Description:
Layout: H1 7-12, H2 38-53, E1 65-70, H3 76-84, E2 100-106, E3 113-118, E4 121-125, H4 130-142, E5 153-159, E6 165-169, H5 185-197, E7 202-209, H6 218-226, E8 233-238, H7 247-253, E9 262-264, H8 274-287, H9 301-340, H10 348-372, H11 386-403, H12 415-423, H13 435-449, H14 451-476, H15 480-514, H16 521-532, H17 534-543, E10 550-553, E11 557-560, H18 569-622, H19 637-671
Parallel strand pairs: 1-6, 1-7, 2-5, 7-8, 8-9
Antiparallel strand pairs: 2-6, 3-4, 3-5, 10-11
Bound molecules: guanosine-5'-diphosphate (GDP) and magnesium ion.
Amino acid sequence: MTTTVNKHESSSSSLALVHVDVDQPQPLSVAPIVSSYNEKIRPVLDALENLRRLNIAKEGIQLPTIVVVGDQSSGKSSVLESLAGISLPRGQGICTRVPLVMRLQNHPLPQPELVLEYNGNRVTTDEENVSDAINNATEELAGTAKGISNNPLTLIVKKNGVPDLTMVDLPGITRVPVHGQPDNIYDQIKDIIMEYITPEESIILNVLSASVDFTTCESIRMSQSVDKTGLRTLAVVTKADKSPEGLLEKVTADDVNIGLGYVCVRNRIGEETYEEARNEEQNLFEFHSLLSKIDKSIVGIPVLAQKLVHVQAMSISKTLPEIIKKINEKLANSLHELEILPANLSSLADAMSAFLQIISLSRDSLRKILFIGEFEEYPEEKQMHCTARLVDMLNSYASELNNCAESNATKDFLMEEINVLEEAKFIGLPNFMPRTAFQTLLQRKVRGISHMPIDFVDSVWDYLQNVVTTVLNRHSANYYQLQVSIRRAAGHLIAKKKKNCIQHVLQAVEMEKLTDYTCNPEYLEEYNKIVSHQVAFLNEVSNVKRLTSTVNLEGYGPIEVAQLKNYPHQVLTQAYDLKARLIAYWKIVLRRLVDVIALHLMLSINELVNVDFQKELCNGLLSSAGGGVERLLEESPSISGKREKLSRSVKVLKESKETVANIMDRIGVYGDN
Ligand code: GDP
Ligand code: MG
């Protein structure tokens, strides 16, 4: 970078740095620190300014910022003051207590324009009063004591001849709390500083007093911790006038790894005017025996201004593509979130058609998963593959029936039959099977298993409840208002269906208890098969010698018979006959309890989907408990809040995108610089 000091102009104004456009006459009294970049940088800065004003940081997008850090009283505020040509609060003790964002804008105004913005306030002020205004605002943000706050204050300075720069002045680092400061003041300040200098987009302007050893500077340590290479750190050495000794060596040695280089300055002292201060500075570096040896390209506020403008431009052009990318990402994100937000229904017609749409979509889904076996809407969710899951449930119910104690044909073989026959004795011919014996045994068995079909339909309807809820949620996800009443109605409906189904099961069980009948020829086949082994079996039983022994019954395996030995043959014959009937008939009963319930279940589900579903949901919606159709028009506060926030964010991001797009063409200009 070359800076051409225009000797001719500097004779009338000591600070003219580079060529000032002759077509735009400048007021003579003002000393401009304009840079050749200004014309190009301006639109970019304006764009950045726009982004900042849109509060794009809230969207998580960091903008390139020059952050001024330094130990307390190192001269940070003085440097800003020099750059802006205005008076800021300064002095001993802690003066800068909140982050001060200073936006300098070169404007050909006859009078400078100063505006303070903080906490939503906007205060217009002038050079004379800006110091007080800042102090007042600081007190409002950080209290009247000596505490600090992270709530920033923005000072916009529109003035002729200032460099186009945006910088943040931060509270100085202090180790020892002064009277009235909280004990953790160091940590508080450190946190604020770290927050500002950590983002890669930040340029760190490290203000160092010439009087100190740079290697011991706290601010150097902090900036090194986030900018190891130093490539985004620029050092300003203040108070060159106070400690000129060894300054040249210090900045040449660069013991502290400052990537962007050093600039030595002398700020305004005491009641000097701004012009006087610049004159003094120029003289100092021109004529001082030690300071004059320092290269002119690294001394003086004008050089600092020039450097900062350049660094800022580089940084912006480097970060803009990334910013654009981030804006696009965030925008896409917000738009998507907005899209999936429950739709806002604004008219009754909208609400009704949304409602009917949900019903019709849900019904189609239910048909597919419950009857047809098409699962494309739930490819991975096995629970929603209902046709298959219903078979699973039915199978496990059937196997439970077949494996329960009541279905065990061989345990305590004939004992129960013998006991029941004993109590069913009647005066009559001996070779008639007492019907009551059979019925007693049958009823006992049916009672024993009666909970199983009930449990089965119970669990099937619980399962269906989940399925229906899942389907409804899927199709009503965008309508918060509808979901509540729809889900309630569906709950009612399922409960009703379940009750109805259990009623049917109870009836089926009762029927089995009441009548023993089947036209199924398998009954007789099975009975005859068992009876055909009767003679052989009973013969073996009577031949058994030992106390415990087993006899093989064909088709049923070894059977424990020791206890049967004591009964007369005629009793055993009758018991065996009774057992044969029971075994053969029980198979029929169990199969009937599976078949009948399965068929009824399918009928119920069919009615549910094709008839009851729509009816019940409409009833639910229109009933007073459902709140009527009008309720659909209400939006939950949390959702409308979220919608508002997202809409705002989308608006900001869209505007930001436009802003950035408008200046993108110009970016290439700096990329090469
Ligand atoms: P800050 O705490 O880092 O903001 O430091 P200030 O800007 O408030 O400056 C602290 C003190 O150092 C003030 O009294 C300034 O006048 C003084 N000061 C700042 N820069 C210079 C300088 O270049 N030369 C001299 N002699 N004093 C300076
Ligand atoms: Mg300060």
